[in-house]
């Protein structure tokens, strides 16, 4: 690889060389203390790496991060019922749902949630204000099956044609019989992919692009689950998630999915030349950026999370040179 190979490239090697604990990453907080000072929800993309970080990031020797998966039981209990009796809440699925749940908790002052996970940046007005703190870098490609009618190598123009349901796209067939998937509503990967494809959530919901689906039958399409695919469908897929599933660091939900090459750059070797990449974030109240334990865990290059580059790489992500930055704040 060329001299531009940086943290993204190192992630692949780290997947093979580093393990965190034994077996697959645990869902929801595991081990004592059961209830953590910093409870967070949201992104499916970053739930596993945050679970891994929750096992190693400590303040004064105590685990303080509680990361609750995007899917699982219908409800979660984020704080000790003896002291916070109203903290059994519906489980938020995705970046948008996590942000909404965090804001609801902050507005009520119930102390149930302290941060949220986000795989996309959303700096729309929020009350109280929120700060998006980057901690890693992910790439996103498209996933298809080995027998797909969609080529394994595409230019961005081809991908955009597919997601615009362009009848002139040569791989679509005479009746445009492709099923073009987006993940469930509220997914950060969904909003990120829409921005890359030049489509809007408003138009998707309005049915402007009739080939786009976010359900298979009646079941919502969960991001980074390749089992939704058949030979006439396509879906965006986090490269970090794909690599971590492939290495058995986390549960393997790929099914028959393989990742496509975009603009001649293969996603199987992560590097900074991959054109479709994004920062991933933890979202914290702006009022807490100088307050412990938020400041100890999230803020600055020497924060608890930013020091754990090996763990971040293990889960398929690249370390972020701007890890801990607090300049991205909602108005």
Automatic annotation (TrEMBL):
Sorted alphabetically, the keyword list is: Signal
| Gene3D superfamilies for this protein | Periplasmic binding protein-like II (3.40.190.10)
Signal sequence region = 1-25
Keyword Signal in the entry? The reply is yes
Q: Does the keyword Signal apply?
A: yes
What is the name of the protein in this document?
A: ABC-type phosphate transport system substrate-binding protein
Q: Which organism is it from?
A: Streptomyces nymphaeiformis
């Amino acid at each position: 690889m060329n001299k531009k190979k940086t943290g993204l490239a190192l992630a692949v090697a780290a997947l093979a060389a580093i393990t965190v604990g034994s077996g697959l990453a645990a869902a929801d907080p595991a081990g004592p203390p059961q209830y953590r000072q910093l409870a967070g929800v949201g992104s499916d993309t970053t739930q596993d790496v945050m679970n891994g970080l929750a096992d190693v990031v400590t303040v004064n020797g105590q685990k303080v991060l509680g990361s609750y998966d995007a899917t699982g039981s219908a409800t979660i209990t984020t704080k000790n019922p003896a002291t916070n009796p109203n903290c059994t809440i519906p489980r938020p699925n995705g970046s948008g749902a996590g942000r909404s749940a965090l804001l609801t908790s902050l507005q009520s002052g119930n102390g149930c949630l302290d941060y949220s996970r986000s795989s996309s940046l959303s700096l729309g007005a929020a009350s109280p204000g929120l700060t998006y703190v980057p901690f890693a870098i992910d790439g996103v490609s498209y996933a298809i099956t080995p027998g797909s009618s969609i080529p394994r190598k595409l230019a961005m123009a081809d991908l955009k044609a597919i997601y615009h349901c362009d009848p002139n796209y040569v791989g679509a067939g005479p009746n445009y019989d492709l099923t073009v998937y987006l993940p469930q509503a509220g997914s950060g990967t969904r909003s990120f992919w829409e921005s890359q494809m030049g489509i809007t959530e408003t138009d998707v919901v309005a049915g402007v692009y009739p080939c786009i689906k976010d359900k298979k039958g009646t079941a919502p399409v969960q991001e980074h689950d390749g089992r939704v695919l058949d030979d006439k469908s396509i879906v965006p897929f986090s490269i970090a998630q794909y690599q971590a599933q492939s290495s058995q660091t986390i549960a393997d939900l790929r099914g028959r999915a393989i990742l496509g090459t975009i603009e001649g750059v293969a996603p199987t070797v992560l590097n900074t030349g991959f054109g479709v990449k994004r920062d991933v974030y933890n979202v914290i109240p702006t009022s807490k950026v100088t307050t412990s334990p938020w400041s100890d865990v999230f803020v600055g290059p020497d924060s608890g999370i930013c020091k754990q580059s090996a763990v971040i790489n293990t889960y398929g992500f690249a370390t972020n040179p701007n890890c801990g930055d607090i300049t991205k704040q909602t108005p």
